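Record type: monomer structure entry
Structure origin: computed from sequence
Chain ID: A
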Amino acid sequence: MATPRPTGHPGYSETLPREPESAAAARRLVRTALAAWSLDEQIDDAMVVVTELVSNAVGHGRLSSIRVVVSRLADNCVRIGVVDRSKAIPMMRTDFHGEQVRGRGLLLVDALAERWGTDLYRWGKQVWAELKSEPTR
């Protein structure tokens, strides 16, 4: 049985190629972190969130790699972030017409996450989402 890591542990991260297939590796990383922290109840939502964040980074990043970061902010809260070298700030779209397939990812992130946002850096950005579960007693 995995022992939960204390709050504030550095977390998990991995640099991945900026390609659609990296979503699967990102999901494995997130699943591993949440299982190690005994936060299994967050896994399903976290799989959707990281897939959407990676998809955005793949579509809008500039260099050949992205970085996925998973950190534990509190006993019941994790932050999932995807770092890329683009400074373009993601916008949640609500103007959908017809058969449009792309562009709904941040709506899903917004629905599943406690909160989400973008941290801008001199060289790019990190888009992140925080997921919380009910505290264990």
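Annotation 1: The chain has one domain: 12-88+101-132.
Annotation 2: The longest strand covers residues 65-74.
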